[in-house]
Amino acid sequence: MKTEISCGPAFALAEISVPAGGSVRVEAGAMAMMRGDIAITTSTRGGFMKGLRRSLGGSSFFVNDFSSEGGGVVAVAGALPGDIVETTLDGGTALLVQSGCWIASDATVDVDSKWGGSKGFFSGAGLVLLRCSGNGEILLSSYGAIRPVTLAPGETMTLDTGHVVAFDETVQYRIRKAGGWKSMILGGEGIVTEFTGPGRVWMQTRSATDLVDWLRARMPSNNGSTSSNG
């Protein structure tokens, strides 16, 4: 997958060159532009149950495969302002991706929900993971800029769960409270994810959860409002 990323890190756009006879898999709704000879096929990729697991994980039930007989270009963009990075899977270590951060990959990359990540889902942390494995290139999108960090064996790093983009499957993780109940209620720090190396971790500089909370606090409320007739 030959990709040119521009307009980052705030409003990144990834233009993917699809060679003659080639294809690329894209998250439903992520396509921003097409050029040349491009055809679209929509499917669950793996059957009903795999599509259902993706949808329960926060991604679309469907994915789009863009293919070309003569060659073309597909451009993809994230739903929120932010960056896009490309990384390679070599058939060895899989990549665990925060749902919503996978945006596109080679058709040879398998994207499925990892229900080991359900411990974050059921704890209310909002950490739901997609397991990406196989051979090929993968594009990760973010809200804000993306910063990669490589952890040495035994080295730890803690992220607010909303800032997690992806991490190697070799990295161990656990979800916990940032501190005591006082810190959660008064300090504004809630659920965090602690990572232990070895492996790579990608973080985003902004949190979509924080954005939602910020907007909710500033939206007018109709609680207690009454209307009278005559």
UniProtKB/TrEMBL annotation:
Q: Which SUPFAM superfamilies match?
A: TRAP-like
> Which one Pfam family would you cite for this protein?
AIM24
Fetch the NCBIfam families from UniProt. TIGR00266 family protein
The protein here is known as TIGR00266 family protein
